[in-house]
Design goal:
It is built from ten helices and two strands, in the order H-H-H-E-E-H-H-H-H-H-H-H. By secondary structure, the chain is mainly α. It has two domains: 67 residues, Winged helix-like DNA-binding domain superfamily/Winged helix DNA-binding domain (Arc Repressor Mutant, subunit A); 164 residues, GntR ligand-binding domain-like (Four Helix Bundle (Hemerythrin (Met), subunit A)), CATH 1.20.120.530. A two-stranded antiparallel ribbon has the order 1-2.
Length: 257
């Protein structure tokens, strides 16, 4: 993971902020397309890069933020900015906005998860590397350790599913799992505190892991199908409890007033 000090950048002459952002995106994209920048490579320091492109550091940062949102770059605190390795970690915000704009329901989201994640689990059973199996086992252990903490349990649940996406060996499917799971996390973290027992959920995750580890694609697909059906029911129950509690709080506040 080394920087590329000899990269050749074109200098920008004069443009507005939007144009400079597009210029930075185009410059980095061209270097990647030519093979001059590869996954894991570090970009030159910000001051140097801004000088070589001929733009201000704030304008450079705007362009880099766009590339980070696209999943092309990843910033590491105190280390620098790198070309992303592995599946792109795309921002889920556009998907959340589309859901609000077009009225996506969470039934739609779970249906999409079934279509994507059942196939992904099957592929992971065929393609997972030893290192990826270790990651799955570690997340499963963390889920067990977090049974008494719903928020932590949810975090490791999401990571488990993302690890399966990576183990599928298909970066496009892994990216879709990342995006959809990001939306699900943002919504479910407000309701998961109403869940009282994760034992059945944990057991379903174990079944998925065991099928993947045993290299049994069809069993992995069926285990994922059963898990997502259970997860949808659990989510519906949490929403009902959350709505009932919110309604009760409103009634009590009116009585006090």
């Amino acid at each position: 993971m080394t920087s590329k000090p000899l990269l050749t950048f074109q200098k920008m002459r004069r443009a507005n902020t939007a144009a400079t952002t597009d210029f930075v995106v185009a410059q980095i994209s061209e270097l990647i397309a030519r093979g001059d920048l590869k996954p894991g490579d570090r970009l030159p320091p910000e001051r140097d890069l801004a000088t070589r492109i001929g733009i201000s550091r704030p304008s450079l940062r705007a362009g880099l933020r766009s590339l980070i949102a696209m999943g092309i770059l990843r910033a590491r605190q105190g280390s620098g900015t790198y070309i992303a390795e592995g599946p792109p970690a795309l921002d889920s915000e556009p998907l959340r906005m589309l859901a609000a704009l077009h009225g996506f329901t969470y039934a739609n989201m779970f249906e999409a998860r079934r279509v994507i994640e059942q196939s992904v689990a099957s592929m992971a059973a065929e393609r997972a590397t030893p290192e990826q199996l270790t990651t799955l086992a570690e997340e499963l252990a963390e889920m067990y350790a977090s049974l008494g903490d719903p928020q932590q349990y949810l975090i490791h649940d999401i990571r488990f599913h993302r690890a399966i996406g990576a183990a599928s060996g298909n970066p496009i499917l892994a990216t879709l799992v990342e995006m959809v799971s990001g939306v699900m996390y943002e919504r479910r973290r407000t309701t998961i505190g109403r869940a009282h027992d994760f034992t059945e959920s944990l057991e379903k995750h174990r079944e998925i892991y065991r099928a993947i580890r045993a290299r049994r694609p069809e069993k992995a697909r069926l285990a994922m199908q059963e898990h997502l059906t259970l997860a949808e029911r659990a989510y519906d129950t949490e929403v009902e409890r959350y709505g009932a509690e919110s309604s009760n709080r409103g009634t009590n506040e009116k009585k006090r007033n």
